[in-house]
Structure formats: C-alpha cells, structure tokens
Amino acid sequence: MKMKKLPPFEVFFDGDCPLCTKEIGFIRKLDQSGSLIFTDISALSFNSIETTGQSFDTLMTEIHGKLNDGRLVSGVEVFRQLYSRTFFSFLVPATRIWGMRHFLHWAYCLFAKNRLRFTGRCKDKSCSIPIST
Length: 133
Hints:
The chain is α+β, with helices and mostly antiparallel strands. It has a single domain (9-118), classed as 3-Layer(aba) Sandwich (Glutaredoxin). Helices cover 40% and strands 12% of the residues. The protein has helices at 18-30, 48-52, 56-61, 76-83, 98-118, and strands at 9-13, 36-40, 64-66, 72-74. Strands 2-1-3-4 form a four-stranded mixed sheet, with helices on one face. α1 links the parallel β1 and β2 (36-40). The radius of gyration is 15 Å and the shape is globular. The termini are far apart.
C-alpha cells in the first residue's frame, strides 16, 4: 500500500524524557517517507523563541509541532500529524471521533501534567520544569 506524500512536519520533543524519547524513536523508525523533522528541545543549541516563538516552559508543558505553513499545533494533534505520515495513518481518523477525541485529549493532558513524575524526574517531592538556559 503506497502512502500519500504529506508535507514535512516538525515535532518538538523533550529528549530528557525517557518515555518521550522511546515514542519518538518508534516514530522515527516508522517514518518511511522522511517527512518528519525531530527537534529535541532539551538540546543546549535549541532556542525556543527563535525556532517556535514560544518559551521553553510553554514547550515543556505539552508536545508541540510545526506544520509546513509555520503554524504550531500541540497535544494530541501532534500525534495525529506524526502518525498520519506513517503506516498507522489509517488509525488517525478514529482519533477525531467525538468520544475518542475527548478521551485522548483528557488522557494526554493527564500524562503531560504528570510526565515528570511518571518518568522519575521529580526531586525531593517537588516536580517542576527544568529552568531554561
């Protein structure tokens, strides 16, 4: 089955997050078309304002991506964009169904709010986003 070629999509991910890195690694392997651009926001050379117009703290609150026209998307829509460029593109329409859309949004928000805790990155009973440099 030949996939329709979609325009490039850039995803901004936290390379210091073990779970996030595993998911991105999985998606990298699925990117047969080479239309995905993976940008690690934890890299010392990354400048959030220059690249996205958003603060580092904003990018750390949830996953973001940039469409080919320069618009930013966030949350579950990023995963729709990523998976629509892979073999699993046939699953993407189901994520837009009313009940599924709301469940996925709720589940992702729960994960995003607690991902530092879920991935063992909280210290001394406090959990905060690392200060940008």
